[in-house]
Design brief:
Blueprint lengths: L8 E4 L5 E13 L3 H14 L2 H15 L2 E9 L5 E8 L13 E4 L14 E12 L5 E13 L8 H8 L3 E9 L2 E2 L5 E2 L14 H5 L1 E5 L7 E8 L18 H20 L7
Parallel strand pairs: 1-5
Antiparallel strand pairs: 2-7, 2-8, 3-4, 4-6, 6-7, 8-12, 9-10, 11-12
Length: 273
């Protein structure tokens, strides 16, 4: 993915802007019986165990051009998993590097006596499977953070992560923190062009989702909510076939699922009529 940058900047020292891309990914299903709900949780736990999540995050590191320094991973009891990676970008010296939006020059590196600085970054994922105690609704949530410093951008991994989890709902945040200076000492609080996270989502993927933005441009905070447009009950049943349900049951299950998805998308409970 091409990150649209400002006119080439000549920076003093290294680029110490921090760019963080965060996701809440949700998968919703209807599991009719307690046994079905237990089986769904077990299925999700196996499908997104620490080993699989490590594989996904490893590909994220490859996509953004980062090097993995350390991996910590854990499967939890009774369910859930976490993976944390410490990553770094290429070492950057005082020379100009081709195809970058700015030139790096000799400058002070705080807390270090060397000119070359290795920018540290991280990628994390945590999973949260859960079920409604009475309604048969089961929800799987994955929280992902890709935080980078320096030249590498987490936006390059945006489409890969959305496609990897193929979620019913995605809540995406992108924020740039800190500042960097050019050789004249002028501060830059952002080094690339963006007015919406949607700018960086592939067109075909955008077409599958209803989206709304809540952006705070003066603070370099970007927020996009995504809700899958297509709804086929077959895709939301776990342990039950649609043909096994009576028309009235199908209608009620669909209402429950739609209510769950709407509440998550808008972040508030819908009162009973």
């Amino acid at each position: 993915m091409e990150i649209k940058s400002f006119k080439k900047l000549e920076l003093y020292g290294f680029n110490n802007l921090t760019k963080t891309l965060s996701f809440n990914m949700y998968d919703i299903c209807y599991a009719k019986t307690p046994e079905h709900r237990e089986a769904y949780i077990k299925y999700i736990d196996e499908e997104y165990n620490a080993e699989r999540l490590t594989s996904i995050l490893t590909e994220v590191a490859n996509i953004i051009g980062a090097h993995i320094l350390n991996i910590a991973k854990q499967d939890y009891e009774p369910q859930g998993a976490s993976v944390t990676m410490l990553i770094s970008e290429e070492e950057v010296g005082s020379q100009e590097i081709p195809n970058l939006p700015y030139k790096v020059t000799d400058g002070p590196v705080p807390g270090s006596d060397v000119v070359v600085h290795l920018d540290k970054s991280h990628v994390t994922v945590h999973t949260y499977p859960e079920s409604h105690p009475h309604q048969g609704i089961s929800t799987f949530r994955a929280d992902i953070d890709v935080s980078t410093c320096g030249l590498i951008s987490p936006l390059k991994a945006l489409n890969y992560l959305l496609e990897s989890f193929n979620s019913d709902i995605a809540i995406v945040d992108y924020r740039i923190r800190g500042f960097t200076r050019d050789v004249r000492g002028k501060k830059f609080f952002i080094d690339h062009k963006i007015n919406s996270i949607q700018n960086y989502i592939d067109r075909d993927l955008r077409g599958k989702y209803q989206m709304i933005d809540v952006n705070v441009y003066q603070e370099n905070i970007f927020h996009t909510k995504m809700l899958l447009k297509e709804f086929d009950l077959d895709n939301y049943l776990f342990g039950t076939e649609k043909e096994e349900l009576l028309p009235g049951e199908k209608r009620k299950i669909k209402q429950k699922l739609k209510k769950e998805m709407t509440e998550i998308f808008y972040g508030r409970n819908i009162p009973k009529v």
